[in-house]
Amino acid sequence: MADHYFSAEPTSADVRRTVQARIWGREYTFTTATGVFSRDRLDLGTSVLLREVPAPADGGTILDLGTGYGPIAVALAVEAPEAEVWAVDVNNRALELTAENAKAAGVEARVHPALTDGVPEDVRFDEIWSNPAIHIGKPELHKMLLHWLARLAPGGVAWFVVGKNLGADSLQRWLTEQGYPCERTASAKGFRVLKVTATN
Which InterPro entries does this UniProt record tie to the protein (predicted)? Predict the structure, then answer.
C-alpha cells in the first residue's frame, strides 16, 4: 500500500531534501522528506493561510494542527517569541522533521512536536492554525476538529484554510451548526480562509 501523509509510520525510504519558503517577510529553508505532506514545496493552501492571516500577537499557547514538516509551527514561534507552539501530527516522520526545522530556526525550546494523544489534557489554546487533512474523510475530519476546537481558551480563535472544491463552504456551515461561529475572511487561489471564534 502506498504511503499517505497521514500514515503513522511511512514505509517509503526516508529521502530528505530542502525547500525554500518566504513567510511573513522572512526566508526559511525547511528540511522535508518522502512520506510527508507537500514535501516538494510549501503547500499552496498553507501559503494562502500564511499570506492572508497576520502573524499572531506575541505570547499565548498556539496549536498547529496537522503540522507536516512544521512550516506553520516554526513561523509562528519565530514571529511570536513568547508563545508556546504545539505541533500535532499523526505522522512520526513529520514530527521528526518539525523538530529538526524548529532547531534550525532556533525555536526548538518552544515548539513541541506531538502525536494527537501527546498533548497534556490541561493545555488550552489561544489560537489554532491548520491546513486540515480533508482527505482523511468527513467523519474523521469532523471528529478531529471538534476535539481540538473544544480546547480553545475563552476568546480563542482558530484559522483554517480549505479548498473550495474540497468542501470549504459546507465545512463553514457545519462548524457554525456545531456552535462554533465561523466566518470566511479571505478567498484566494481556490482556497477559503475560515476564522472560528470560541464562544466559551
Answer: RsmC/RlmG (IPR046977), SAM-dependent_MTases_sf (IPR029063), Small_mtfrase_dom (IPR007848)
Instruction: State the number of CA atoms in the 13 A half-sphere of 75 facing the CB.
Output: 28
CA pair distance 36, 56, nearest whole angstrom: 26
Residue 112: CB atoms within 10 A of its CB come to 24
Match 500564511 to its residue by C-alpha cell: 50
Q: Report the alpha-carbon distance of residue 85 to residue 111 in Å, rounded.
A: 5
Residues 127-148 pLDDT 10s: 999 998 887 788 999 999 999 9
Distance CA 169, CA 163 (A): 9
pLDDT tens sequence across 184-200:
999 988 999 999 999 76
**From CA 41, how far away is CA 147, in angstroms rounded?**
29
Tell me whether strands 125-130 and 152-163 are parallel, antiparallel or unpaired: parallel
Which range of 27-41, 69-83, 158-172 scores highest in mean pLDDT? It is 69-83
